[in-house]
Structure formats: structure tokens, C-alpha cells
Amino acid sequence: MEILVYGIGGIGGYFGGKLANAGLNVSMIARGEHLKAIQKHGLEVESINGNFKVKPKMATSNVAEVPKPDLVILGIKSWQIPSVAKELKPIIGEKTMVLPLQNGADNYEKLIEVLPKKNVLAGLCFVVSFIEKPGKIKHTAFEPKITFGESDNSQSDRILKIHALFDKAGIENSIPKNIQLEIWKKFLFICTVSGIGGLTRVSIDKIRESEYLFEMMRNTAKEIIAVGKAKNIPLTDKHLEMVFEIINSQPKGNTASTQRDIMQGKPSELENFNGYIVKQGKKLGVDTPINRYIYECLKPMEEAARKSG
């Protein structure tokens, strides 16, 4: 199987590295000094589960150079999906599978606006990893896991084939009964902490120490659940409590990646997080005042980051 990993940051670098380390045919799309280092020395992964170094079949910035892929894994940010999908379209074959792993609730929908529906899967992942320096990925927390499936939640042959592929690479993975619910469960956590983190510019433990901010987080999450329910996602109060168990268990100093992007003046996933909830709420007749407050306060910074980026 020909595998293309587009985006060799924390997600694509870790999982792409694991696949290459298992001897699979992995091509990688990267940029700048990171790409040069991979081309020259290979990709190094420092992990709490053991370090390794791999030489991908190909590392390039040009998708036209890679072998026609059977599986494309997207390790990009959610806001990059539309442009990357257009870039990928010429190399998507009849049976190519495209698996998005980024945060966000509507990555599948964004992809099928550009690519044929039959080629697109739904997915998410759990891993805390990042580019430590050009050519090197550092995995620091969580047992990395990929959760994925067909959009109709059927147990197709191709889904089972990917499951076996991930097993071979030593990647923990699961095919849930309802992939949309799993995507929204993760989205509920990441959207609840990201925007408010970007506003306050302090770690999650500092936010939860404030009674006012903690209540603000709960109201943010309740609005997300209300929008999800309006979209027929079976979220419940149980999921709300599960998210706050995760929030309450976050160690001191932890921040979300979108918060870090906002604080560093980089383009972030604000539009795909709080912005998405605000727009969907308006469309579906669900009030989202807390998410709107967060979104509108951060939007000028986001627009400035996009112009400079």
C-alpha cells in the first residue's frame, strides 16, 4: 500500500514515522527547513514509548512527485483543509482513501466539498507531540491513538484493512460505532479550553482555579452540546461531565495547541472552533453568547495573524 502523509508536524510526524518504521511505503509532504532535514538525515522521533529514526520512501513539498497513494493521512490544521484538498485532487485515484486526523467538527464536510465523497473517511487522533527542531518530532504525553471510520459507520473491508495496517505499525486504533460522536466528544473538550485559553493566556489549571472562568467554560461547553444536538449528534450531560473530568485532571502548565498559536500570533483554528459553533448556532437557531464573546474578542488577532502569515 502506498501511503502519503501530508503535514509532518506533531500528528503526521509521529504517526507517519510509526508507519515508516514498520517498513511500509510512506511518502511525506513537508516544508522548509523541516523538509530539508528529513531529506538529508531522515525523520527522528523521540517518544515516551521509545525513540526511532526513519527514512521515508520520499519526502517532498510537491504532491505531483509522490506515487499515487492508496491512503492519504492528513496531519495539517483544520483551516488548511480546503486548500490542501484542492492540491491533492489530481492524485486522488478511484480507490484512494483520505483520512483526516485534525481537531474540528467538520473536517469530513470540508473535504467532500472538494473531493469525491467515496474517497473520504472520518477520523481523529490523540497524541501530544510537536516539532522540536527541523527533522525531529517529540512525543511527550498520552498513549497515541487513531479513531476512524466510514461516514455511515459501516464496517467496510477498507476500514478493516486500515485497522490491520495500524496494528502492524504498533499504532493503537479503534473503529467506533459512531465516528461522528467520537469526533464531537474530542471537539467538545478542545473547543471548550482553546478559545478561553487564548483570551486569558494562562494554562488550563489557572483557568479552572477561577470560579468565574470555570463557569464560563461550562457554559461554553453547554452551547457546543446544544449545537451538536441540533445537528443530531447524540451528546448528553454525561459527555459534559466527562470533559470536565479531563479538564480537572490536566497537569499544571498545560495549554491547548490553538491557544499557543493565538498567543504566538500564528494563524489558529479559532474559525473552526468557537467560530464554527457561532455560525452553526446562527444557522440552526441555537443561542451561543459565550462562544460568540470568545470568538469576537479573538477575531481581530486572528485576522492580523492571517495577514502576516
From TrEMBL:
<keyword id="KW-0560">Oxidoreductase</keyword>
<dbReference type="InterPro" id="IPR013328">
    <property type="entry name" value="6PGD_dom2"/>
</dbReference>
<dbReference type="InterPro" id="IPR051402">
    <property type="entry name" value="KPR-Related"/>
</dbReference>
<dbReference type="InterPro" id="IPR008927">
    <property type="entry name" value="6-PGluconate_DH-like_C_sf"/>
</dbReference>
<comment type="pathway">
    <text>Cofactor biosynthesis; (R)-pantothenate biosynthesis; (R)-pantoate from 3-methyl-2-oxobutanoate: step 2/2.</text>
</comment>
<dbReference type="InterPro" id="IPR013752">
    <property type="entry name" value="KPA_reductase"/>
</dbReference>
<dbReference type="InterPro" id="IPR036291">
    <property type="entry name" value="NAD(P)-bd_dom_sf"/>
</dbReference>
<dbReference type="Pfam" id="PF08546">
    <property type="entry name" value="ApbA_C"/>
</dbReference>
<comment type="function">
    <text>Catalyzes the NADPH-dependent reduction of ketopantoate into pantoic acid.</text>
</comment>
<keyword id="KW-0566">Pantothenate biosynthesis</keyword>
<feature type="domain" description="Ketopantoate reductase N-terminal">
    <location>
        <begin position="3"/>
        <end position="152"/>
    </location>
</feature>
<dbReference type="InterPro" id="IPR003710">
    <property type="entry name" value="ApbA"/>
</dbReference>
<protein>
    <recommendedName>
        <fullName>2-dehydropantoate 2-reductase</fullName>
        <ecNumber>1.1.1.169</ecNumber>
    </recommendedName>
</protein>
<feature type="domain" description="Ketopantoate reductase C-terminal">
    <location>
        <begin position="178"/>
        <end position="302"/>
    </location>
</feature>
<comment type="similarity">
    <text>Belongs to the ketopantoate reductase family.</text>
</comment>
<dbReference type="InterPro" id="IPR013332">
    <property type="entry name" value="KPR_N"/>
</dbReference>
<dbReference type="Pfam" id="PF02558">
    <property type="entry name" value="ApbA"/>
</dbReference>
<keyword id="KW-0521">NADP</keyword>
